[in-house]
Every structure is written in C-alpha cells, then in structure tokens.
Amino acid sequence: MCILFQSENHSVRRKEMKPFGSVMFMALVFMNWANGYEDMNMTELLYSYGDAEYGISGRPLMVGLTLIYGAAAKGAVCLDGSLPGYHLHRGYGSGANSWLIQLEGGGWCDTIRNCVYRKKTRRGSSTYMERQIPFTGILSNKAAENPDFFNWNRVKIRYCDGASFSGDSQNQAAQLFFRGQRIWSAAMEELMSKGMRYANQALLSGCSAGGVASILHCDDFRNLFSGYTRVKCLSDGGMFLDAMDVSGRRTLRRMFRGVVNLQGVQKNLPRSCTNRLNPTLCFFPQHLIGTVKTPLFLVNAAYDTWQVLASLAPPSADPRGYWSRCRKNHAYCTAPQINFLQDFRYQMLRALTSFSRSSKNGLFINSCFSHCQTERQDTWFAPVSPHIRNKGIAESVGNWYFNRGGAKAIDCPYPCDNTCHNLVFR
Prior knowledge:
Helix content: 10-25%
Mean pLDDT: 89
Low-confidence stretches: 1-54
C-alpha cells in the first residue's frame, strides 16, 4: 500500500490545508502488511528545496555510498548476503577530528516471509540502495542548518539486517543472513581505520529502528575510544513502548518477540537486562536506557506517529475501523481517542522518570504527532522548527553535548504546542 502524507505546522489553519510554509515535501510510505501490523520500513522524504526562510538553502549535499569490502569475510552481510555500506562526508577545520555516526532506521522483519520480502529492497540488500543520499538535518554540511556538527566527519550507516544492527543468525533454507551485530562491528572497524580512532569528540545517533540500535550499541561505541574522547549517544524516535493497543493486546511485543527469536538477538542484548527480564522485553528501550552508562539524549514525539499507526491502533486491533481516521490524522480523533493517546504519553513520561534524573542524560519530548525529527531540516534546525520553551531540537542536543546547560525539555500535553510539524497521512 502506498500512502501520501504532508507535514503540517499546527499554527496553519486547518481549513486552508496548505503544505507547511512554501517548502513542499511529501513522503511515500510503503507498508508491508503482515501478521496484523504495518512495517513502515521504507520511508523517504522527498523535498522540494529552495526556500531559505525555512532553513533550507539550496539543494542538499549528496553523499555517495561506500561498500565495506572486507565485511563478507567476517560474515557481516545484509539479509541477502550483499555487502553492507555507509555514506561518509569528511569533516574539516575545528571538526576534523570529530565524528558523528548515524544509524539508519527502517522497521524490522520478524518472520521468514517478511525478511524474504525485505531482502529484495534497500532495507535488506545493498544492491537496491541509492548510490547517493542527501545529508540534511543533523547531517547537513551548512552551519546555517546544523550549527554544532556541520564540519564534523558525518557518517550514515545503512540498515539492511532488519533487527536494529543486533542479530547474529541465519536461515539457510530461505537464504537469509541475520548479521546485524557483525555489520555493526565491521562498520566500526572500517571507520576506525578511516580516522575515527583519532576522534576527540564522537556522537552515535540513530532514528527509529536506528534509534533502538544507538541505545543498544551506545556503551560499545564508548569502549572504542580512549578516556580522553568525549563520547555520547542520541536516539531519535526510538523510544518504542511495550504498550497495549486499542484492543488490549500488545502488538509491538509480539513483533519484537519474532525479531529477537528469529534473528538470534538474545545473545547481543545487555546481560544486565536479560538476567532479570525476558529477552523480548530487553529489546524495548524502556528497559535498556537504565543500563546505559554513556551519556544518552532522547528526542521523541510524545504521540509518535509510527507507534500510533503500527503499534497502538493497527487495523488488526481495530477490525471495525473505529480508529481509521484518527490514526492518520489527529484532527479526526474523538475525545476518548485523545484520552487514549494522552495515556500513551503518560506511559512514556513514566518510563523516563529514572532516566531523566541522571545529570548525564538529556531529553526533548515534544507533544507532536511526528517521527524522527533530527534527520529532517524543518524539524532539526529552521526558523520555524519545533520548540519547547524557546529552544529547538538542534540547540537542545548541542547544549547537552557540549555541556552548555538546558539538557531536559518535556512539552505540555497536546494541543498546547503550536510549533509542531505534525504528520498527516492521506
């Protein structure tokens, strides 16, 4: 199924229904329906650039794909056995020895059928990956778009294993390789040889499934460097909750159980979690963030659109279609539906209580209907980007990373925030 959606600034009057500002951008979301949930595993934002008023100055930097040719010998391959890859843009000046690593997101595959489908896409094979991708948001090379990290060495590691870079198994009958953990190790070894070993500053980031991976691998990343390197981690849109759906079942737990069991993820989960909880529960960030020793920042929408669509109100949990309009556009939600979503926000904040008490950690939890806000220029850093108490996402992350203060921001409940760039599906 193919759905078109647009980003909508909450301050725009709904009757106008015009795109955000004059920066038109739409997304094609290819949803794979399987086992009653939507795997939004192939999302592309297609921007029409050219309006500096909204933080976009000219066309974005396009960065080429590099395959890791030594990976196959280590068994570090994509689902179909092809080589993994990454995109690297070198830093310069004051950022020449600083490194930003972003782990790509894109859902998961929890069954043989889903993984066989996935291996014929860019989420499971480098054969189908774009040879060039735009670097925007936190990856932008323009100071006006990315003030703190624009001149760092910036890397995007492509996601082609379907288990947040954490599996280590295979299925010979289906010719599937579940080697996410090995891809992570091979990519780190490659980048260390490219100069990352000399980093004086490093930040591991990730969006969605990549946000889960940045939490899972945060301490591993820290251990790559000496004690003199400032190392921190950022998870964007990765705070997936083990929450009940609208039918009273746990759709996401069922999916994560399939991912963990099928791809051999158990052995790579933190022992500090699996010693006390079922491995499936240890794939949920809410049970992982308390075990991470490295400073960690969480950017998340309180009403995360992926979770609303695929976890809280999937069609499998709503056979009569009561949620069909609300799940695509919050403007159509009834009062009871809004109350359900407010409870989800409360569960998220409760799960973050202990995490937020630590002085080393940071938060930006805004009350928006969005998903992955550090990759998009309009949400990362622009004159009209989302704000909490007069601070945007880029400023909040930068303040935390460089110890400039103001590291924790939690929004008031919907509908109080008029700076949101809410996603409306059509």
